[in-house]
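Run log, item B.
One chain of 114 residues. Sequence copied directly from the ordering sheet:
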Amino acid sequence: MPLHDQIRKGSSEIIILSLLAQEPMYGYQITAELEQRSDGYFMMKEGLLYPTLHRMEKETLVVSEWRTVGGRRRKYYKVTEEGLQALSRHSAEWRTFMDRLLHLLDSPAAQETT
């Protein structure tokens, strides 16, 4: 599996939580918003999105409800208070991870290999 795909898979929960923290969304809306907001860098297929949403729902990070909008019935997902707390924790962990990774990449030894 390419590195980009591994990173995307490992960050799928925080990505979804960050989008749902702004507003409830249905599945296709999540993928479209993700792609648009990342200028196409992040794309999430159904095979990753829905299993992640279902797991997050079991862990009470999100809740879902069926809504009919414009004659179409869609399942909307909304972040819970527990999900917001998880988002805060994950955000702090990712920021620390990125800070340490960039520190290593910017080290003189890493610069010599480029």
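Observations after the first pass:
- The chain has a mean pLDDT of 92.
- The beta strands are 25-26, 62-69, 72-79.
Flagged for discussion on Thursday.
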